[in-house]
Amino acid sequence: MIAPSILAADFARLAEETAAVRGADWLHVDVMDGHFVPNLTIGLPVVQALLSNTDIPVDCHLMIEDPDRWAVGYAEAGAHNVTVHVEAAGDPSKIAKDIRAAGARAGLSIKPGTPLEPYVELLAHFDTLLVMSVEPGFGGQEFIPDVLDKVRAAKRLVAAGELSVLVEIDGGINAETIERAAQAGVDCFVAGSAVYGADDPAEAVRQLRAMADTAGAGREES
Ligand SMILES: O=C(CO)[C@@H](O)[C@H](O)COP(=O)(O)O
C-alpha cells in the first residue's frame, strides 16, 4: 500500500492535490501542533474538508500533544485510520478503544529512537504500527535505515500470531529506499516528496507500489 503524504503537497490547492494521487491506497494527513513537533500544519476543520472531497481512505497521523483529547474527533469525522504517538499518549489503549468505537482503525506510532519492545502488549489494542523513519516534523528528510529492525521484529511477531497489526513506515521513502523497507516487511509506505515532487504524482504512486511489490515478494523472511 502507498500512502502519499500531503505534507509535501501545495496546501493552497489541497483538493486538486488530493485528486492528483488517484489510485493511492491511503491519503496520509500529517496533523502537527507546533508542540509535540516543531512544525504546525492543519487540524480537524481542514481534515473534515478533505474527507468530504475524496474517496481515498484518509490516514491521519497525529503529531500532537494530548491525543487523548483530540484523536477521537478525527475518527468521528470519518478518517479511515487515526494514529497517535506513544510518546504523547496518556492512555493509549483507551484512545484506541475510542477510535475503534467511532468506526476507524487505530494506529500507534513510534519515533526513530523509541524502542518497540515495551509496547508489544499495548499493540494488541491497535490495528496499525507506524514506524517513523525520520524524526517527525518535516518532510524531505533522509531515511534512517536502523528503524527497519523494528519493522522486522514486528513482522516476526505478526508471523508468529502474537501480534496483528499492519506495519506502516513514514519518512524518507522514495525509489532509493522503498525496496529495503519492503524487504523488511513493511505493508504500507508513506511517501511525501517522492510523490508530490514528481511530475506525475499518480504515476509516482504506481511506480513506488511496483517497486515495493517486487521487493516484498523476495522478502528477507520468505
Ligand atoms: O510525518 C512525516 C514527517 O513528520 C511524514 O509524513 C513526511 O511528510 C514524509 O515526507 P517525506 O519524507 O516522504 O518527504
UniProtKB/TrEMBL annotation:
PROSITE patterns: RIBUL_P_3_EPIMER_1, RIBUL_P_3_EPIMER_2. GO terms for biological process: pentose catabolic process; pentose-phosphate shunt. One of its GO terms (molecular function) is metal ion binding. The active site is at residues 30, 170. Binds 1 divalent metal cation per subunit. Pathway: Carbohydrate degradation. A divalent metal cation binds at residues 28, 30, 61, 170. Keywords: Carbohydrate metabolism, Cobalt, Isomerase, Manganese, Metal-binding, Zinc. One of its GO terms (cellular component) is cytoplasm. Its cofactor is Co(2+); a divalent metal cation; Fe(2+); Zn(2+). It catalyses: D-ribulose 5-phosphate = D-xylulose 5-phosphate. Substrate binds at residues 5, 61, 137-140, 170-172, 192-193. Catalyzes the reversible epimerization of D-ribulose 5-phosphate to D-xylulose 5-phosphate. HAMAP family: RPE. NCBIfam families: PRK05581.1-4, rpe. This is Ribulose-phosphate 3-epimerase. It comes from Actinophytocola xanthii. The gene is rpe.
